[in-house]
Amino acid sequence: MTTQAPAKTATKAAPKETPVVDVKVVKQAESVKTAEIAPKKEAFFNLQGRIWLPERLEDIKVSKNGKGNLKLTFSASLSRYNEQAGKYISTRFFNFSVTDNGHGPLATEILAAHSRGERLIEQRSQVDTWTYEGKFHETWLIIGFNVVPRPNS
Q: For the domain that residue 111 is a member of, what is the CATH number?
C-alpha cells in the first residue's frame, strides 16, 4: 500500500488590483491638513518695549511705501515707568517706521491711537540696517503693537 501525499490546494486568494493614486495629490492634501493644524508662528522681532508716540502729529512723517500703502516714520525712545520716582525713564532715540502691510493695518491703527490721545504703546520691531556713503544707518520696522493704559496718577 502506497500512501500518496495529500494534494496541495491553492488557499491563496487572487491578488486584488490596487488603485493607482497620484502621489503629488496625496502629498498636497497632507500638507494642507498640516497647514490647517499647525499654529501660526509669531513673527521674529529684535526689539520689544514701550515707546511714546510723538506728541505732535507734525513730528510723524506720513507717506506711502513702494506698494502705495500708508507709511509712518518717527523717532521715539524706549520708556519704562519707575514707580519709586513716579515718572517715566527713557533711553536713546530710535528711528521707527510702520506701514500697512502683511502684519496688518498698523500705520492706520497707530494714527487712530494717536488721534485718541493714546501715545504710549508696547511695540515689537525688526531692525533694518544699511550703509550709505560710508555711514551706518538703522531703522526699526514695527511689526506689532498694543496700546498701554497709563498708570493712575
A: 2.40.50.140
